[in-house]
From TrEMBL:
Assembly, per entry: Forms a complex with KhpB.
Family: Belongs to the KhpA RNA-binding protein family.
GO cellular component: cytoplasm
Protein name: RNA-binding protein KhpA
GO MF annotation terms: RNA binding
Source species taxonomy: Bacteria, Bacillati, Bacillota, Bacilli, Bacillales
GO BP terms: cell wall organization; peptidoglycan biosynthetic process; regulation of cell shape
Main localization (coarse): cytoplasm
Amino acid sequence: MTSLIETIVKPLVDYPDEVRVKEVSEEHQVTYFIEVHKEDIGKIIGKQGRVAKAIRTVVSAAASQLDKKVHVKIQE
């Protein structure tokens, strides 16, 4: 799943080498933390959060076969 998130995020940013995806797995949920260069945060969030919402939608659709909730968070 981390490679999917990286594949989505890297073309959107100016500093693709600084994209980091961290996975934190718990009993009934998995949280993915996306870290990008501070100048790229706005590009990942998008206007009114549309890009972030689209990323979350794609990741949750890909993870629908898992029996866990999936969360995607963007870190500064």
